[in-house]
Structures are given as C-alpha cells and as structure tokens.
Design goal:
The chain has one helix at 8-28; strands at residues 44-47, 50-51, 56-58, 61-68, 74-79, 82-87, 89-93, 96-104, 110-120, 123-135, 161-168, 174-176, 178-185, 191-193, 196-198, 205-209, 215-218, 221-223, 231-234, 238-241, 244-246, 256-261, 264-265, 277-281, 284-290, 293-294, 307-311, 320-326, 329-330, 335-339, 349-352, 355-356, 363-367, 372-374, 377-378, 387-389. It is mainly β and 391 residues long. Strands 11, 13, 15, 16, 18, 19, 21, 23, 26, 29, 32 and 35 form a twelve-stranded parallel sheet that branches. Strand 1 (44-47) and strand 2 form a beta hairpin. 37% of the residues are buried.
Length: 391
C-alpha cells in the first residue's frame, strides 16, 4: 500500500517540533539562549568631544563631527534651507563612520536645528537632526603685540593712596599714585599717572572733563563699578595712554581733540537703555585711536554687546572729520565696527591696518561708502575682512 507524501502544513509543523526539541535539548545540557543582536548606535554630532544636542555651542565657525553606523563618504550641514558647512573627511572603524567639517554659525542666536545630510556616492543615505543652543563665542586671548593686562593700567607693585572722589580746579595739577572714587576735572593741563578711578556713583561720567583741555591720563585705570557709571570718560580735549577701562556701560566717548593709544577697553556692562560700545562718537573731529585692544565683552557673559567702535553724528555739530583708527585689535559687538548709515562725514574717516577677531555677532564691519578702509584683516588668517554696507 502506498503512503501519501506529507502536506506542506504538516512538514512545517514537523520542522517546528524539531526546532523546539533542539532548544529543550540545549537547555538540558546547560547551553544558553542564542545571543540577542546588538542595536546600531544612534547617530551623534559632537563639538570639542561632547554631544551638541541641546548643548551650549559658540556662534562661530566651528568643527562638528557626525558619527553613524550608516556607511557614507561625504556630507553637508544645513540650517533650514541654508547650507552652513561641508563634511569632507570621513573615516570608518568597527562599523562606525565619522565625518568632520566646519559649520559656520556666525551671527546666529538662540536654538537652531542643524541637519547633516550624508551621502554614499551620489545617493543621500541618511539625515541627522540635532538642536543646538547658540551662545556668543568666548573671547579668545588677546593676540601677542596688543595691549592687555600686563601693558595697561597701574604698574605692578605700585602702592596707591585711597582718597575718595576728587575734584580738580587748579590748572597743571598732577595726580600720581591715587586710588580715587569718581574724578571731575575743571582745569586745563591736568595729568593723572599710576592711578585708579573706581566710580561707584550712578552718574554719567566716571571721569568728567569740563574746560579741561590738555587732560592726560597714563598708566592708569577707569572702573565703572559693574555698570554704576555710564561712560568712562568724555567728551573731548583729552589723551589716554596705556589706560585700562572696564566695568562702565560705555567706554571712552570721542568728541573733539581726542587721542587714545596703547590702551585696553573691555568687560563693559549692558544697561537696557544704552548701546554698549568700547568707544563711541556722536560728533567729533581730530580723533586718533592707535594701537588699542577694543572688545566690550566680558568672558563668560553671553552678550556680544553693541560694538568695539560705534560712530554717528546725532549730537552737537553733527559731524565726523579727521578721524583715524589704526593698528587696533577689534573684537565683539554685533558688528565690531559700526558706522551709522546717517553719519554726516564732513571730512576723512579712516580705518587702516587694524586686525579683527571673530567675535562679532554679524561680522567685523558695517559702514557707509564714505568711510575709508585700508588693510584691515582677520588676525588669524591675514585675509581682508568684509565690509557690510550700512545703507
């Protein structure tokens, strides 16, 4: 008698019974269950060795690495519809692919979504999304050769005599080695040396000059006591040499007949009603600013502040003429140098041979066409800095 071959369902049931018997046998002999497959690692973007996801990332041109288990050989970085970087170098090890490239986040603020588009050959194989919390880039150290803590302010070892607020009314007075409060000068040809002004009053000027033509301050400091005083010094007829300015809401104001050389303005304090600038003019002439370090920011404070130099013509004679900025180091601000579109230029306004850091929120310079710019470059590369049109 012939037997009929088993049906397909019967064969499948038989195979299942045999597999179950094999598992029971394995358990009986002490063999463990089959190993569980490991999940592929999640894609990661990192900056300076740490994940960028919801991290505080400087709003600057920085290197970001993307790693994933998906094979790729190139990529691009995007924010919205704008490409902000390229992945040019890709390596692989143990099934993990890593690609690095520069992402330009300059001028951006708050939270942004950065997208890495990854390609293998001509095909896009993966998109990686990460949220970045952007903050102003930390001020880098002052480049060699520009004024800093070692070359400005009261010389090391100088012992100062505390005297409180000072009013000077005698022409030709010399103040040397004093630790003052606020300083008011109402006389000509006054000289301040090796001294400190710490103006903790809620007043307009830490160093107030009235009828004080020929005023000179050198190897000294002006401190606004964490923003108590609004302006470091103003308005005209003065010279600063090797002076450190800090803690005011605004640095020196530039009116008529002002010379500032070899000085350092930094660490200023924002007030909601003040556009904080390392230096500012709202009208003036015969202004020379040479070989200074001008950066209004405070390290660790997430605020670009307004500008290293702000020029306009809103007050007084409403003019700017015979103005020269040369051999300075500028950094910080929304733009480091900002010349108003409406500024009335009645003579030359010149920026030449200055160097710029990368800390401007939107860029190094914004200015109208009437301002002359010559040999102004990035301090790190030596390339000529771009100029955004103010009008």
């Amino acid at each position: 008698m012939r037997t009929r071959p088993a049906t397909r369902p019967a064969r499948r049931r038989a195979r299942a019974l045999l597999a179950a018997a094999a598992i029971v046998a394995a358990l009986g002999t002490g063999a463990g269950p089959a190993p569980v497959a490991q999940a592929a690692p999640a894609p990661l973007m990192s900056y300076d060795g740490a994940s960028v996801n919801n991290a505080r990332i400087p709003a600057a041109a920085i290197s970001i690495e993307t790693s994933t288990s998906v094979a790729f050989d190139r990529g691009t970085y995007w924010i919205g519809s704008t490409q902000v970087g390229t992945i040019d170098t890709v390596t692989s090890e143990n099934g993990l692919y890593r690609g690095s490239g520069t992402v330009d986040l300059t001028g951006r603020t708050d939270s942004v979504t950065l997208v890495a588009k990854l390609y293998a050959g001509k095909y896009m194989v993966q998109k990686v999304y990460k949220v970045l919390r952007l903050v102003p880039p930390a001020p880098l150290g002052i480049p060699a050769g520009w004024p800093n803590a070692d070359t400005t302010g009261v010389p090391a070892g100088k012992v100062l005599q505390p005297v409180g607020d000072v009013l000077v009314t005698t022409p030709g007075t010399v103040l040397d080695g004093l630790d003052m409060g606020c300083l008011t000068v109402r006389a000509t040809d006054v000289v301040v040396r090796n001294s400190r002004v710490t103006c903790a009053d809620d007043r307009l000027l830490a160093v107030s000059l009235s009828g004080a033509k020929g005023f000179v301050m050198e190897d000294s400091e002006i401190d606004g006591a964490n923003g108590a005083a609004e302006v470091a010094i103003g308005w005209g007829g003065y010279t600063l040499r090797r002076v450190e300015v800090r803690g005011t809401q605004d640095g020196p104001r530039l009116g008529y007949d002002v010379t500032i050389v070899d000085s350092w303005v930094h660490g200023l304090v924002r007030d909601p009603d003040v556009h904080t600038d390392a230096m500012q003019s709202t009208t003036g002439a015969r202004i020379l600013v040479r070989h200074n370090t001008l950066d209004p920011r405070t390290p660790g404070v997430d605020d670009f502040l307004n500008a290293a130099v702000q020029l306009g013509t809103e007050t007084g004679n409403q003019e700017l003429r015979s103005v020269v900025f040369e051999q300075n180091y500028f950094n910080g601000g929304t733009f480091s140098v900002n010349v108003s579109c409406t500024a009335r230029l009645t003579g030359s306004v010149v920026f030449r041979n200055n160097r710029f850091g990368r800390g401007g929120k939107y860029g190094p310079i914004i200015a109208p066409a009437g301002v002359t710019f010559t040999d102004n470059t990035w301090v790190d590369t030596g390339a000529v800095v771009p100029i955004a049109p103010a009008c």
